[in-house]
């Protein structure tokens, strides 16, 4: 019996199952649809998280180092001098200085940008970026949450009341982060007139973007340079690659549990298929005996049963892709960042193919154990 003939006969038997035993086929399809949907979703979340971490931590060829000044009561002794000194390094592409304001004052986050041309300041939903032309250290971007704007209306009135200009528009909201945080651009000088920044700084973070990673002697030179200008502030220098590895490890620890859950769902779906296939074979023993009596080999019967199962599993695979496509935008809208790629489809199809074979092997081997005459003689139906 040729493979082509087996496929044709297998498809006819699947049609027959749909006609006479629809619930068996539907249960198998739904079981694998749930399992494969879980697989695609988990892989999509991993891919989205890994891509986000690479973008945040790697920078340019792993060349980003973070200098974090700890326990500040104000600015380091000479932050501008440190920045000017670092700009002389030929290996540096850009420098950013970012500070945070304690939450007891309000959810205000300020970015004091030291490089003359900075793009991709804040990432917002769907990969868009705020881009400012000719931004320098005399300008400031602040992020105000809606809750802060509601709780502290006087702060908003002070800022707006100063008629702070941004390319001709005062207090312009230039974007939104996380669907709730308006981003307002104002000059740094005007912000200092409103708030005494030196009394409320929590910490300062200096992001240094190198064109490539640092060697050991260059890293030591960076430490000495920062120490020279840091004043009394404590500081720590961390490579983005180290932070990336730590975050990647945390992601895999959390993801391991998700993978265990997905594996459990897949095993249940496979056991469900094997059980239903077993009962289906018990009802078709006479048919199998006739095929063997007319010359079908045991390997032909095994291939036939496995191909029948593969048709059902592929049905579950198609249903899983459809469900993922339907929920893709919805999940991303609610911060469950996922992706859809050819790799996900290929892996999930491979898992479906493996599950179809695995779920059909045991019933198929059982089907060919009985002698053809005994199978033809047996006309009992479960």
Automatic annotation (TrEMBL):
Domain MacB-like periplasmic core: 25-192
Compartments, as annotated in UniProt: Cell membrane
An annotated Gene Ontology molecular function: transmembrane transporter activity
Keyword terms: Cell membrane, Membrane, Transmembrane, Transmembrane helix
Pfam family, one: MacB_PCD
Cellular component GO terms, alphabetical: plasma membrane
Residue ranges of the TM segments: 21-46, 251-281, 301-326, 338-361
UniProt key word Coiled coil: no
Signal peptide: none
Domain ABC3 transporter permease C-terminal per the UniProt entry, residue ranges: 261-371
UniProt membrane topology term: Multi-pass membrane protein
Family assignment from sequence similarity: Belongs to the ABC-4 integral membrane protein family.
Protein name: ABC3 transporter permease protein domain-containing protein
Organism: Anoxybacter fermentans
